[in-house]
Amino acid sequence: MMRPSTFWFLTRRGIRNLGKHWAMTVACIASLSVCMTLNTFASLAEVNVDSMVNYLGNQNETVVYLDPDCDDATAQQVGDTIAAMDGVTNVQYVSKQDVLDTYRGYMQDYSSLWDEFETDNPFKANYRVSIRDLSQMEAMSKKLQAIPGVYSVTAPVEMTNVFVQIQQSVTRVGRGIVLVLMIVSVITVGSTIRLSVFARRREIEIMKYVGATNGLVTLPFVVEGLAMGLISGALTAAVTVGAYSYMVQASDGLGGVWQMIMGQALVPVSAVWPTILTYSLAGGAIVGGLGSMFSIRKHLNV
Amino acid sequence: MIDFEHVSKEYKKGGPLALEDINFHVDEGEFVFLLGHSGAGKSTLLKLILREETPTEGKVTVLGKDVAHLRRHQVPYLRRQMGIIFQDFRLIPSMTVYENVAFAMHVTNVKRKEIADRVDYMLELVHLEDKASAYPDTLSGGEQQRVAVARALAHSPKLVIADEPTGNIDPELSLEMMELLERVSEMGITVLVVTHEHDLVRKFHQRVVTLKKGRIISDVPADKEAIRARPDHKDRALYDEPMELTLESEEKEAATV
Asked: Which keywords, in A-to-Z order, does the entry hold (chain B) (predicted)?
């Protein structure tokens, strides 16, 4: 069992080695930070495109028209049934009068024409339904159609399918990019750490000759790797959160449709920074720590 | 302490033998010179003692352990009972003199207080107490070798192996180094000095095992009379104060037993 004093001695050594081998430290931190920043940006892009597609998809609600003959109690029951359905995120009741008022608003110059309909309203009361998973819209429409008291269901299935396909493609491409970048990161960072360990193989050899176990030899290197990983993680978080905040602010000045889409769909900074910070620190620590541990292994057979 | 029984070593199957049918025994507290030219097999013999290599044939026993049967994770515990001095010093460049000496004790799990006292004592012993916070690359060859000696002795080893310890220092310092090792041996610690310097070896009249082309060609025992008659013996000792090479914790342990 290692004494605490030995543990601290070796831990201090690991931290101090960051300064002693500063050139290698800078190289490792730089390569790790660049790789993790690219990864984080790719993930952020994926999350935001996903959010945008979801936002646009949700603008196309499913409209459930009620049977003109159904009474208020049935209409209420239909509303309750829809609200209780799995996957429904929002249900809004629109009465016949609401529909009429809406159209009256569109054609104010011909207001008198609409007066004809006050006594005999031809519109149907309806529910506007938003669903969580757009890919389920077609199946959901069939379920809605089957509810007693429902006259018909209008759902923008084809348009939604396009959105779903875009979303799935973006997700696939995004994950592919993240995976490739992760592999590149591991190779780049692994090579840099291996180079750093190789430059100090003599030191490892000496430690082994004086009777250090593999654990004792490895500890300072792992501490060093962890520290480099945490520094890289903090840098990555600072750069990505800073750049993302700037992008979110800049989207305000876009104007028109883009501002409407971006303003509504861009995931706010407050929602992403804790995740970015956590994943960057954890990712850096894992890659740095494990990278050092694996790089040192082949030099331990002395 | 060290026992070689019909030991042969070949690095490549069917290749030349680095060692061939080596038989020799070193007793506890003995001082032995292992003499031979380059390529004689000295390094291979050391690698077998350090369990860096295992014999192709025969049996090597070091400190009561058959090295071929030691598992990898047991090797550090064998080495902790040894102190090794290399020709090129092999100090860790990123550690100060103090830390280099302390490191050997940290790995053997010695208490911090004891490490501090011991390192101070060892540095005093090799007259480097004022260089404790210096880094190896700022020291002369002789000073670096003395740090290596302090490190080798710090954790109270049972066996000290010196591989060409005088190879990188001047003749005057070489004599001092050998005297120091001789004194270590007088404390009951086994000392094995690998060298190719015949002249230096002759001055000490200690046991000399000579290797040539992987075989032992002579094993001359120590000449006790000649050692006692040596004018430099005792009188010319560089380090006159009595040496204390047992760790405090070991003394307590012995007292308890």
From this structure: ATP-binding, Cell cycle, Cell division, Nucleotide-binding
